[in-house]
């Protein structure tokens, strides 16, 4: 099943940017483009919303032991930020050379307030984002083998890649290291599981290219699990 809400989110964000651009003077005053280099750590400010114009970001948390845990993935035309009360324990890191729209929060809210349909759509985006976060956190209850294939599934769904068809190439930023930080497991374990997925016809690797051969099979793999164990998008 294609993840429609991600497609709708990206289209809705594109529509919002078009709407906000209606007054170019205000747009230039309250919306800035920020270039972020690959692997640069980006600290969000509660006075702004951020929409990814180009590239991809991962929200990360460092543990007391120095380990990095990935929390959420954001790709083009997806929104993120932080609340006024949220402490800066998590940071966002650019996975590619990226560009962000930095939008004054009050400016955006004031404009959406007079557009109830757009405002409702934005609130739905944040509801879905919360659901996605809960799904990511539920991975900790799974066995490593199942956790890794479920993480791939969730990341693919998160960026709407499955809308391109049943077979597709993963973006280069979805590395085994990134998957391991979402799974909170060792990269060696991810590499071992990738080999199993290759041998069983789920994946194909050509150099640094990772190709999903049959996404439907990945969905089917997850069906037998209890919904309490596997946070699927079905």
UniProtKB/TrEMBL annotation:
**What keywords are assigned to this protein?**
Activator
Cross-referenced InterPro entries, in alphabetical order?
cNMP-bd_dom_sf, RmlC-like_jellyroll, WH_DNA-bd_sf
What protein name does the entry list? Answer: Cyclic nucleotide-binding domain-containing protein
Q: List the lineage, top down.
A: Bacteria, Bacillati, Bacillota, Bacilli, Bacillales
């Amino acid at each position: 099943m294609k993840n429609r809400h991600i497609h709708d989110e990206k289209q809705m964000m594109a529509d919002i940017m078009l709407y906000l651009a209606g007054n170019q003077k205000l747009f230039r005053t309250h919306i800035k483009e920020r270039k972020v280099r690959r692997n640069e750590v980006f600290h969000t400010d509660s006075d702004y919303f951020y929409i990814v114009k180009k590239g991809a970001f991962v929200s990360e948390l460092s543990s007391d032991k120095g380990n990095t845990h990935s929390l959420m993935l954001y790709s083009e035309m997806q929104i993120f930020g932080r609340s006024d009360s949220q402490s800066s324990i998590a940071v966002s890191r650019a996975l590619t050379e990226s560009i962000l729209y930095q939008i004054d929060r009050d400016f955006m809210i004031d404009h959406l307030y007079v557009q109830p349909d757009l405002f409702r759509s934005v609130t739905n985006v944040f509801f879905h984002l919360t659901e996605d976060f809960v799904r990511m956190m539920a991975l900790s209850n799974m066995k490593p083998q199942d956790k890794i294939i479920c993480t791939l599934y969730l990341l693919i769904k998160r960026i709407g890649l499955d809308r391109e068809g049943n077979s597709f190439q993963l973006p280069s930023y979805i590395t085994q290291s990134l998957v391991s930080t979402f799974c909170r497991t060792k990269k060696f374990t991810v590499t071992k599981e990738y080999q199993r997925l290759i041998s069983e016809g789920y994946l194909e690797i050509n150099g640094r290219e990772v190709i999903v051969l049959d996404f439907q099979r990945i969905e089917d793999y997850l069906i037998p699990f209890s919904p309490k164990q596997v946070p699927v998008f079905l």
